[in-house]
Amino acid sequence: HGPSSSTLFPVLYGVQVPVMTDVTFQNAEMVIAMPTVPQLLEMGCEKTGQLDKQGGLFSNQWQSRFFALRSNFLYYGESETSDSLKGAIHLDEAAISVHSEHGGKEFVLEITNPGAKSYFLAVGNAAEADEWREALEAAKVVVLRESIRSQEAERERAIIEQDTYERELVSARQAIEDGAAELAKAEEYFQWAEKELVFYREEKARVEKEKYAIESERDQVKSALEAEQQKRMEAEAEVEQIKTKSAEAREEMQSLAEDRERLEQEIARVREERAQLEKPSSEAKAREKAEKDRDRLDDELDEVRRQRGEVDAQVVELRSQLQQEEERLYDVEKEVESLRASASAAAAAAAATESVPAPSGGESAPAPSSAAAEDKFAGLSEKEVKKLQKEEEKMKKKVEKEAKKAEKKRQKEEKKRQKEEEKLKKKQG
Hints:
By secondary structure, the protein is α+β, with helices and mostly antiparallel strands. It is about 65% helix and about 15% strand. It has helices at about 5-10, 35-45, 125-275, 285-350, 370-375, 380-429; strands spanning about 25, 30, 45-55, 60-70, 75, 85-90, 95-100, 105-110, 120. It has a nine-stranded antiparallel beta sheet, sandwiched between helices. A hairpin with a 7-residue loop joins strand 3 and strand 4 (about 60-70). The longest helix is centred in the middle third of the chain and has 152 residues, at about 125-275. The protein is rod-shaped and about 225 Å long. It starts with a helix and ends with a helix.
């Protein structure tokens, strides 16, 4: 199969000729569906004529055919008025020669294409044979020129493509150089990033260590606060016990004061009876009775005095116990004050742990401030820091509240004790 109609017909027929539907070659003889011979002649040919052609599909006889040379093809048909052409001979690489005799004919043109059969055309005389040979050679020259022009156009296109390729190559080289520079920058950035990563890992480890230390310190502060709170509760319980014992002692002293008052009234009564008995009587029986009553009253008076002495001893003992209880109360108050101071110190220590230094960066990170360097909560989230501060503030307020409550209760008990002492002194006076 030969080239398609899209490459043949602009050369063969021009734009006026209808499009061919099929083109085939049989031994360099083109068999195509093409227009009539008159249409080909109308388009113009370099040379035409009626010649004898040797051979066909099934014989080697001479047949008269009408030949028309146009461009690099030699077309032939049965006659000048044939409706269609029989074929065409391609002349680009054809070898053209003239034989004086061949196959019983004189002055025969031989057209041979490489690898294809030869065509023999009987012209009739030498002059006409030379004209046909020159015309056919000229057609080959035209084709050669067209080929040269095509090659030049192809070379110019190749030069343009080469220039384009060289420009693209320069652009590609520039892009490669730019890419190498970008790659160098990227490698430098990656090295910096690796250093930063190492630094931040070390900083993270340090922050984790400080966080662990802060948590340990917070646990210690919490344990200390709980211990102080336990001591304070024990002290308050002891204060309550002392207050209870003080109240019991006051009640016993009040009871003893009442007994003393009762004994004093009994002594006064005995004295009155004795004074009455000491008056002179006329009757001995009355005197004897009076003597007996006096002895009895003396015994009762001695008993009252003895009981009064016991009461005074008990009062002295109770006063001593009260003094001891007051001293214990004073010691407990001092311990409460110590616990309050310890709680304040613990709260101050907890308040001092409210911040830790933020991690400082490598080459591009800003330097930390002096206040941030003292912060001990680095690594904790804002939520955890607020929660810890809230718990510490709550514990501090609770300790202060309990201390104030204990102080008020102590002052109240002190006032009550002073009133009881004043009341007891009044009774004793």
